[in-house]
Amino acid sequence: MTHEVTWSPAVTDAEVEPHLRAAFAREFGGAPDGVWAAPGRVNLIGEHTDYNGGWCLPFALAHRTFCAVRARPDGRLRVASRQAPDQAWEGEIEQVAPGAPGGWVAYVAGVVAILAEGPAAGPMGADILVDGRVPLGAGLSSSAALSCSSAVALVDLVPGLAGVDRAALAEVCVRAENDYAGAATGGMDQTVSLRAEDGHALLIDCSDFSLTAVPWTLPEHEVLVIDTRAHHSLADGQYAARRDACERACRSLGVDSLRELHGADVDEVLGRLGGDAEAQRRVRHVLTENVRVLDLVAALEAQDAEEAGRLMVASHVSLRDDYEVSCRELDVAVDAALGAGAAGARMTGGGFGGSALALVRRDQVDGVARAVHEAFLAEGLEAPHLLRATPSAPAHRLP
Length: 399
Ligand code: GLA
Known about the structure:
The chain is an alpha+beta fold.
């Protein structure tokens, strides 16, 4: 049993870059053309709304995935990772297909294959060495950080891709995840990793992916992320089942997207779903969550931490009871954080494990972290990992 709280601090460029360059030389010979990094994310509110055309409010973490990349002109792709030294992959870009290669390599190979499709790209290839420093499987978008870091590198290196802007690049990364890696993600993660603004949360309107940067206005509070270390996999069936239920509800309601029902009377909409109790619960979550996102933006503008916290708790309850994507570890994290004085707490990301977040006064962060740690041990759970989250920069090339 461990008694110390385990923190997962973000690493700096200087802690990663020299080792990554040296590892590149060992793996591929010679030097990379450069090193790029893309952040993971934490979502303040607006969960399972992105694929329903709604709103969400994530920010980029200081925790990033780095990649050292060298362009090559011969249509070959070589991909390796410092975290998985025995899983290097090499092949022709032309042969990359959905699921082949599989596993984490698909997130990189899918991006490269899609970018190579356009005639403007010309003959392209790449040697890519990844160093992923976003906690893996923690619901903090390590996979989006992986696809986005390779994507920005290629756009910088391949002259024919210079015109691909960040919005288009986010679509490429979503396609890579959906079609090549087989994860039906909705676009929030890739958008914030590529288009975040340092020091701000990003209000994403997922009906058209228009953005509003929302400044962090609560100087006395910070976001504490609790990585429960419970299994989290988007590729398994539960996430897809939630998407299917929403699509079924849209068909019954005669709309293309639940977004069209924003502002409608929720009870009246649910009444139209008749005997489909599952669809009613899912739709109630999505419609009420959209309102909470906009209310949280207003609470931040008003510097009202209490109201922000209340909205986060309401979001958690809705995800737990109506959307049914929480789990014991997430509920323990949320309850322990609130019990120790957090202004608000909720699960974040897809759910079924992964991370929760808590809105905590700066002078209470250590106390809340310890209380959560102890609650996990008292419940017989593996100790969580804690990280302090500050709104950080989007994907970029290291200077
Ligand atoms: C995962 C997906 C996102 C989003 C969230 C839930 O993180 O990748 O697209 O759907 O779950 O809000």
